[in-house]
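2024-03-11 09:14:02 INFO queue: dequeued item Cd(2+)-exporting ATPase, len=786
2024-03-11 09:14:02 INFO validating residues
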Amino acid sequence: MGTGQEQVKRELLLDGLDCANCALKIENGVSKIKGISECSVNFVTKTLSMYTTSDMDEQVVEEAKRKVLRLEPHIRISEKGQGNSGQSSWGGTSTVNHKGEQGAEQPHSGAHQHHGHQHMAGHAHTHGSHGHDYGHDHAHHDHAHHSHAHGDAESSGAHAGHSHEHGAGQTRTLLARLAAGSVLLAAAIWSPLDGWAQLGLYILAYVIAGGDIVLQAFKNIIRGQVFDEYFLMTVATLGAFAIGEYPEGVAVMLFYQLGELFQGMAVNRSRKSIQSLMDIRPDYANVLTGAGEETRRVSPDQVRIGDRIIVKAGERVPLDGVVKAGQSMVDTSALTGESVPRELKPGSDALSGFVNKNGMLTIEVTKTFGESTVSKILDMVQNASSRKAKTEHFISKFARYYTPVVVILAALIALVPPLLLNGATFADWIYRALVFLVISCPCALVVSIPLGFFGGIGAASRNGILVKGSNYLEALNDVKVVVFDKTGTLTKGVFKVTAVHSQGAHTEEELMRLAAIAEASSNHPIAESIRAAWGKDIPVQDADGYDEVAGHGIKVNVNGQEVLAGNGKLMEQAGIAYTMPQTAGTVVHVAKAGIYIGHIIIADEVKQDAAVAIQALKQLGIRKTVMLTGDATAVGEAVGHQLGVDEVYAELLPQDKVERLEQLEVNKGPKEKIVFVGDGINDTPVLARADVGVAMGGLGSDAAIEAADVVIMTDEPSRLASAIRIAKRTRRIVWQNIGFALGVKAIFLLLGVFGIATMWEAVFSDVGVTVLAVLNAMRVLRIKDV
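2024-03-11 09:14:37 INFO prediction written
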């Protein structure tokens, strides 16, 4: 993004954004504004995302609004999360620096906070778009259902309103116009009228059928937007009139409008299908009032932390919290893709988006709606398309140059052959050039490609996999090396004490007591397992001088004597001889007053589907699997051998893991990608350094959701293989559309040049191909891979 200055991410809702070409024009126009370092328009969710420098924020945003209205005057602009009032309320922003690292958290107008997202310098790929705006009120969630009037009172001064999406009223109006145009065309063709009277009928039919297209084309030309579909259709049909092909001029406009209607319906259907996949936003919360059992139904964003809510059977849990009373089975499939219900009882964490199956639950709210799991998921999925895949960038650039080139070629087709070839007439070659123009519209590509990627992201989310951008979904296709953290990723991270070996005159109970005192203040899983094995009150009053030595263990004074509890490195540092057992597991050595008193062995259980995950990845063409762990070499190698991992690197500190990953980067191919899979809590530097960072077990974990590019909402490593399969299917469908659209257009362009294709075939190759490409893109939504 540049260097050194703080960046602010702003998002605008573009209510009435009616076509992918319009989105492309807005993106190109706004990206040229001085002060905007990055800009992206998501046609599917009608959102404009842009990064500005903080000192120029307001004036740049106002300039962006003016630019949008100059390009598409009918669009109503509002700040994301502020509804569609048409008034901008510039309250919600997030800051990022130029490396793409989101800055300090800033609360905004009583709403939400944006989480920090730290990325390391020198990162090979850009995480520059990781400014996540979690916690909006999602007024935009159903905006695709709005109908946009064709020149209504709210958009006075806008164009007469040709739209790719039609509400019920607009559909009836357009169908009436198409019917009237068709009747007038039939009357002009078969009536006994001729001369000016017949021409008048053709003109009237043309104006009724396509007057809005012509008007919009002229308005766009005045605004400097020449080469778009309105221009192509206007030139082609008016050109048909100019050479006396009146019936075709009118018929082509009728057919084009009908095709656009079908295209709009297909796009809307795909938008709604994507939204239905993520239809997890709760509508209300039942808040307990006073000391009694009375409840009050309120909007989820009005509930405060500490409030108690009731969730009845069949209702969706509206906010994150802890179950205080009641017991029930809940359906978590909307968040995790898991079909097996989960049991909740007092003390269980309940996440927004769960559906209560049978009992009644009383839940104490621990997060506001803006910070809740469901809110974060919705925002992540809906904002994902602002980080575009290379294929989308290619199509955007292709469309920008493609149409002008085609117009120039059409002019050459119209003018050169009649001048150079004997017997060639201008009328014939102008007609061929007009056919060429109609065929050339790149709608099929600019509509279906973003829909394909967005559908892939939606399908992944239904499978419990959150992908933060189309670029990461596409990158998963090129993964050849997968690097796993061990604890919490391939293993359950639930440690248990399996053996206690005291030495000399010291008893096992004394060994456990000293270890429990040393680990009393640590939240590490190993410390928790030692405290659980001790199972009694820990006499912390006997201890002082607590000191945690990173990557080694703990030093603490107990009744005036120094106690060490940690790995072999801690013992070596203190010059204490120790015994190393042969048993696989994590070993905690304990020493008191410089004397070794024994060790505790703690084992971690391998996840049930970890071996299946490694095997599935190899079947997908992954060249190398690697495991990195801070555990002892014996433990790491035992787990690696059990799972079939290719390479194991043990006894690594967090910075050692980054170095090891960088060594793997050097040895990979230029187009190959490396994925790192970690638990998202202590692996942030490595997640950031990998080409694609995947956080495992992200259900409710803020750290996991923040640090990674892909979040697997369950604890199943096999979901990574599912994510790669979904990515491959998405790319296959996207490239099917590219090949189909360009192939059909190439064939019809040739047929048009040789005079074989008429305007009827030309219109099919434009709107027909677009409708088919959109329907093909919708197949992505049906991917179910669990």
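2024-03-11 09:14:37 INFO annotate: The domain at 492-604 is CATH 3.40.1110.10 (Calcium-transporting ATPase, cytoplasmic domain N).
2024-03-11 09:14:38 INFO item closed
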